[in-house]
Amino acid sequence: MNAGTGDERMTTVEIDTTAETDPFAALAEVFAGRRALLLEDDPALADHVADRLLKAGFEIVDRVDAGEAALQMAGSHPYDVLILDRMTNGLDGLETLKRLRTTSGPSSDAPALMLTALTGERQRVEGLLGGADDYLSKPIGDEELLARVASQLRRVARRARPANTDLINGPFRLSPGARTLKLTVEGTERLIDLSPLEFAIVSELMTARGQPVTKTMLWDRCWIEWTFLPDNFVNIIDARISALRRRLKEQAPELGEDLHPLIVSARSQSLIFRDLDAG
After folding, report:
1. What is the CATH number of the domain that holds 260?
2. Quick count: other Cβ atoms within 10 Å of Cβ 126?
3. Does the first or last residue of the chain, that is N or C, have fewer Cβ atoms within 10 Å of its Cβ?
4. Do residues 76 and 91 touch, judged by C-beta distance below 8 A?
5. Do residues 154 and 208 touch, judged by C-beta distance below 8 A?
6. Segments forming the whole domain that contains residue 192
7. 152 and 179 share a domain?
8. Do 233 and 239 touch, CB atoms closer than 8 A?
9. Among 261, 151, 170, residue whose Cα is nearest residue 217
10. Same domain, 139 and 70
11. Torsions phi, psi of 70, nearest 5?
């Protein structure tokens, strides 16, 4: 399968453009008042994940080490997100989630992230078909964990909006249904010419509204024809992002040097599309 040109796969591109402020710090507002349920039977890992969520802004992280306890907690409390280890003592995380999805409790529809060492394609498919909204491989970095949790909270918020609603970001209008990106300057609207892959990348980043999207997330959602994560996926993404930055600058020169590049790096492995409505 081809993720781009052959040159892209062989080229290492340094992306050193960073956001002026840390978008991960801004997640504190997104996480404020939120409650998470964590099913994890490794005490050290449970401590670490809970600590990261609380420091990032979560109000409560309830921890359990068995599926039976997770079901009881989820049946009694409304959680904003569930983080479930697949292999646990007693009822495992996948069976726990399957049973939870059949109930009408306060957390039966909460977004669920499966966090597991079972990383094969078959196990991933089983997890997603079993009710998981995302499937994360152990070990997972803090950056990836927080970005994935934030992504699930965004998706819940989008459920309340009509499907294919246009997204406005400053002078840009992104239309998911028509798969177009348009720029309005001095009352005149024009189409930004993007390839299908470039549109998918811009759509994923703009939908995040200035929140970080990790390169692993971008790969999963934009390079959908791939069934595995190649060793050089970061190089492939970096090359594509570098070209996309140039393409956007060429087609939107009116924005000026202070706003270009529109896609900027956040920490080591994440990207954001500038929120042009902020400030």
Report:
1. 1.10.10.10
2. 16
3. C
4. no
5. yes
6. 6-22+162-273
7. no
8. no
9. 151
10. yes
11. -65, -40
CA dihedral 166, 150, 98, 85 (to 10 degrees): 160
CATH of the domain at 57: 3.40.50.2300
Residues 151 and 173 in one domain: no
Residue 279 lies in a domain: no
Neighbours of 105 (CB within 10 A): 18
Domain end (from 159, 194, 226): 159
pTM over 0.70: yes
62 or 278, greater pLDDT: 62
Q: Which two tokens stand for residue 133?
A: 């909204």
How many whole angstroms separate alpha carbon 220 and alpha carbon 82? 20
Cβ count within 10 A of residue 1 = 8
Does residue 1 lie in a domain region?
Answer: no
Same domain, 139 and 206: no
Last residue of a domain, one of 134, 159, 184: 159
Structure tokens that stand for 214 in this block: 């990790």
H or E stretch covering 39: strand 35-39
pLDDT digits (tens, 9 = 90+) for 4-52: 433 333 333 333 444 456 778 889 999 999 999 999 999 999 999 999 9
Q: Which amino acid is at 171?
A: P
Please tell me whether residues 143 and 172 are part of one structural domain: no
Q: Do the beta carbons of residue 82 and residue 111 sit within 8 Å?
A: yes
